């Protein structure tokens, strides 16, 4: 396009055109592996279909997404006053970019933060996880005994210390992550897949006013940095709906939403009621006490 952006197209020379647009190489980075999954509260999908999709999700490499600095800023800036004198924990930090840590350390004094702690997850690499903290003056770096899994005992000790958790947790473990943070009575601001709104573990938290969507519009795609091998696979398989090229760089395209326990000003999640219930119009879920309301 004239504005310097690129749109995915389908032609016999698709891969060549895409590669030509990517002459400038970007460094490969690693972060927590995430898998996409279907919501559990559904009466339209069989168990066999769900198992097939889950197996497919676990076997693909196209599941690594690294939150961009700009993506973090666009949401977190709305909660500026709520971070004053708080200890912030980023417990699903990636090992290279560390954008959550970079964001809070660079805005430390402006937000009035007390301390920021970031734990980098190393997965099955065999490497020890890194814990980096910043108090406004000094930066301290330590190593854990394990890989930085947020459920481990040593990571839970850091969870106990914090006031607010801000991170991009593994999508496949989103239920476990939210349940753990709520169990420890911590405030949170985290990224999740749109379908998480329908999880039977998440919906009751919305009813109890313990969780609400953030400021980002739920029907707006998010763009994440992705590893080079994932970029190549997306190009070869022509999965244009899963990425977008902006200024010659490939970004993973994901429908996400920010979930938070913090106060969201001027954007009530529950709106005025406009219709009455009808058994014929609103179907009841088979495995959860709720009804489906379509647009």
Q: Could you explain the architecture of this structure?
A:
The chain is α/β, with parallel strands linked by helices and 295 residues long. It is built from 9 helices and 10 strands. It has helices spanning 14-20, 47-59, 69-76, 99-106, 108-111, 153-161, 174-183, 203-207, 228-237, and strands spanning 87-93, 115-120, 130-134, 139-143, 164-167, 187-193, 212-213, 221-224, 243-246, 249-260. Strands 1, 2, 3, 4, 5, 6, 7, 8, 9 and 10 form a 10-stranded mixed sheet that branches.
Strand-helix topology:
Layout (H helix, E strand, L loop, with lengths): L13 H7 L26 H13 L9 H8 L10 E7 L5 H8 L1 H4 L3 E6 L9 E5 L4 E5 L9 H9 L2 E4 L6 H10 L3 E7 L9 H5 L4 E2 L7 E4 L3 H10 L5 E4 L2 E12 L35
Parallel strand pairs: 1-2, 1-5, 5-6
Antiparallel strand pairs: 2-3, 3-4, 6-10, 7-10, 8-10, 9-10
Please give a quick description of this structure.
This protein has 295 residues and is an alpha/beta fold. The chain has nine helices and ten strands. Strands 1, 2, 3, 4, 5, 6, 7, 8, 9 and 10 form a ten-stranded mixed sheet that branches.
The SS-based structural class is alpha/beta
The total beta strand count reads 10
Contiguous runs where pLDDT drops below 50 for at least 5 residues: 6-63
Taking the sheet with the most strands, its summary is: 10 strands, mixed
Structural shape: globular
Instruction: Output mean pLDDT.
Output: 75
> What are the secondary-structure elements, in order, as H or E?
HHHEHHEEEHEHEHEEHEE
End-to-end gap: 34 Å
Strand content: 15-25%
Number of helices: 9
Estimated helix fraction: 25-40%
